[in-house]
Amino acid sequence: MKRVLTPEIIEEKRREIYNTLVDPTSSHEQKVTYLARHAENFMTVLDEPEELDELMRCDIDTRCICNLFEGDAPYRPRYICIDFPKFLREGSEFLQLGPAKDFDEALTNLMIMYHNIPSITNYPVFIGDLDELLGPYIENLDDETVKKALRLWLTMIDRTILDSFCHSDIGPKASRFGYLLMEVESELENAVPNLTMRVSKDTPDDFILAGIKCALHSAKPSFANDEMFRGELGDDYCIASCYNGLLKGGGSYTLSRLILSNIAKRAENIEDFKTNVLPHVCDVMARYMDERIRFLVEESGWFQNSFLAREGFVQRDKFTAMFGLVGLAECVNLLLEKEGGTERFGHSDRANQLGVEIMDIIDDFNKNHFNPYCEATDHHFLLHAQVGIESDHDCSPGTRIPIGEEPDELVDHLKCINLFHKYFPSGTGDIFPVDLTVHKNPQYVLDIIRGSLGMDIRYLSFYASDSDVIRVTGYLVKRSEMEKLDAGQNVRQNTTGLGLGAAKNCKILDRRIR
Amino acid sequence: MAKATVNKIISFSCVDGPGNRSAVFLQGCGFDCRYCHNPETIHACIHCGECVKYCKPGALTLVEETVRQTDEQGVCCGDAGVVCFGGGVMPEVSDGLPGLRSADRGTGRKRVHYDITKCVFCDECFRHCPHGASARTRELTAEQVMQEVRRNLPFIRGITVSGGECTLWRDFLLELLSLAKAEGLGTLLDSNGSYEFSKDSKLMSVTDGVMLDVKAWSREDHLRVTGRDNACVLRNLEWLAHAGKLAEVRTVVVPELFDCRQTVREVSALLAELGCLDARYKIIRYRPMGVREQYKDLTPPTEDLLQELTDIAAGYGLRDVVIV
Fold it and tell me: Residue range A59-65: average pLDDT?
């Protein structure tokens, strides 16, 4: 069913456009992005499931499906993870660049490429496995030369790629480049780019410790369970955007999310939720995603015309889509309340077990849903524990325990997340601010990371509780920038606004310190 | 199995030795340091029942005494989960330092019962304790402690037993550390040095290292700080360093109480002489948190002094000197 734009809807959209035009807290760049989205949303090209409007375009407290601002006419994939080694090796005809022959050329070519990779925010969400990409170019350079170049290059990224969904990866092997990169990142304390260290059994302690020390200064890297991702996605995976496991040379067409906390409101009881309400919403969202993918692949022309596809930096059949969800904790709590239970998610076996049963239902649904264009992942979507958006209220990211309700003991917290990380090859993660004294004992964090690797824990982030750069839900922001924005000034990065909203609505500054 | 009075167990600790460790705090200490940050761990509960009045959640209750016995070591009595030193006499420890001060039983026929499941850890009980003790403790066997520690695998690299003074519970320690070793965990003791480690090869065979407090170098200073002589502490410093069992040395810096420069200098010189340059020397800033009212006006050291002390230690070649 194609939507009809009534005069009322059009009038409302015009009001939104006006508000964007005059918004004192948006920079020019941000306004241009929002205006493009407003224009896209005048289109009614998708043949949407009939039941969608009632589940998605409704009051925020009853909304069950959310398309995360993707717009109503998808004309580029949401997440694009290009084959950077090929680009450095061969150059690009469209960009009129030859192979990169030395470190300076590699840095410059990459920067040019970054500004030509679209996404939902127009900034690249994956900028490469930096150690593998750039390591070979620094063999004959001394440390100071490399660090000076990196300082300039990373500063340019932070000042020109204006949101922190931009993600880079290192590891699991230790490398000289990896050490130098982390040294410079600790100094700079920039929010962009985000950074993940893949960690395996073979990653040396010393490299992980360098990562931990860096994280205590700049809230990055986060630590990914390499063996877990590799087992699910193969060797060619990368971590993009917040913490999304995707295939290099591919990416994700789209991401929609189930708002489980609101879906639970529509159920009579646990049984009704499991057998009727949840499967229905999953079905509508999956069909909506199918249609978005169909339009993108068959009609938008992106895969036919973008130089990224034409020159082989991405291949259509390496794309998948992300079936997201938020608010499992609140969903479980509400369902138990409906049956007179007082157990809380994260604190009782019964509540956690209900969470597992709900995840099994969603996982089974996904395994039985077939999409013709997701060959890369056996024609299924990948589940994704979405990190939330600033307008979320009483709805925790993915399967996280609500802030303020974290178990007293970190070990109990870890055992709870251990139940849920396994469902999400396209990303989930938990975040722990740690006390200052850990600066003197980074092995404390190392032991937690090592312990997690042996379990089903996928992705962990740490930051120092007094740090300026902090992790909001997946992305990074600077406290100092949030304060400026809160005082009514406009700031450079889109994500600062998201962070400020999250600080106010989602209590991200109140996480339990470990 | 030997039991100990356990003040608390911290599942993950980043401040009780390298890496992430479970820390077990035992009740009772033969020293009476003026700046003690946990004075409620010094004495044994005498079951006077004063604290029960302040326990809002009802975790502490005064119950009729039903069990009263003293085992052959005269250490403890009662069943698990019940606080009672039973009027038993603590074993004598080296240098004639008395162990727990077994005070008169007060009411005699009642005792304070502690239910950890109701406890909200508000600390009101020991804040109001007139005897410098805590009733918020449990009598546990080594196996019972280990059961709690096992929950923290695989995230920890070891356990640290602290106090109070953990060596007052020697037999319990031996069992606990042996159980920890069987799990592949590292074992550290946090000690005030009042126990003659060199004479207990059995205990040392399951102890990876001792984190030793050197509270002051000169006997007079040590007496002023702790009320006790330090000959045994200094023998331990030398012996542990020599035996490769010195995991860490700590000195809490309170300038008006003892000669800090002398202490740091002499400790560093001894470690250097023994070639023990990689042992961590923790220079601890005195803070008034938790300290008893009558000693609260001690002055914390300046940053300059802490740095000077660090430089003294580093000057002797010590490679791991930290200020905390």
Answer: 95
Distance, in Å, from the CA atom of A23 to the CA atom of A10, rounded to the nearest integer, reads 20
Place of tokens 């698990």: B80
- How many Cβ contacts (< 8 angstroms) between chains A and B? 50
Beta strand ranges found along chain B (DSSP E): 3-13, 21-26, 60-64, 110-114, 138-141, 158-162, 186-191, 209-213, 246-253, 280-285, 321-323
Q: Considering CB atoms only, which of A441, A451, A455 is closest to B14? A: A441
Q: Is the peptide bond before A128 cis (omega within 30 degrees of 0)?
A: no
Tokens 């995840």 map to which residue? Answer: A359
| B227-281 tens-digit pLDDT | 999 999 999 999 999 999 999 999 999 999 999 999 999 999 999 999 999 999 9
Q: Which of A237, A301, A255, A220 is nearest to A81 (CA)?
A: A237
DSSP 8-state assignment for residue B264: H
Q: Which CATH number fits domain B3-39+141-323: 3.20.20.70, 3.30.930.10, 3.40.47.10, 3.40.50.150?
A: 3.20.20.70
State the average pLDDT for chain A.
94
The Cα of A443 is separated from the nearest Cα of chain B by a number of Å equal to: 4
* ipTM reported for the complex, 2 dp: 0.86
Report chain A's C-alpha Rg in angstroms. 22
**Chain B nearest C-alpha distance from A401 (Å):** 19
Q: State which amino acid sits at residue A401.
A: I
- A13: containing domain: 1-44
Residue A433 falls within a domain, yes or no? Answer: no
The residue among B10, B14, B121, B284 with the most chain A CBs within 10 A of its CB, best to mutate, is: B14
Residue A340 within a domain: yes
- Assess whether A471 and A507 both reside in one domain: yes
Question: Is-contact B228 B195, C-beta < 8 A?
Answer: no
CA distance B27 to B100: 9
The angle that helices A328-338 and A349-367 make with each other, rounded to 10 degrees, is: 120
Closest to B122 (Cα-Cα) out of B108, B111, B136, B103: B136
Please classify residue B108 by burial: count the beta carbons closer than 10 Å to its beta carbon, then call 0-12 exposed, 13-18 middle and 19+ buried. Answer: exposed
Q: Is the dihedral of CA B198, B202, B208, B214 positive or negative?
A: negative
First to last CA, chain A: 50
How many domains are contained in chain A?
3
Contact between B151 and A452 using a beta-carbon 8 Å cutoff:
no
The answer to whether residue B311 scores a pLDDT higher than 60 is yes
Do strands A237-240 and B321-323 pair parallel, antiparallel, or not at all (unpaired)? unpaired
Specify whether A191 is located in the same domain as A278.
Answer: no
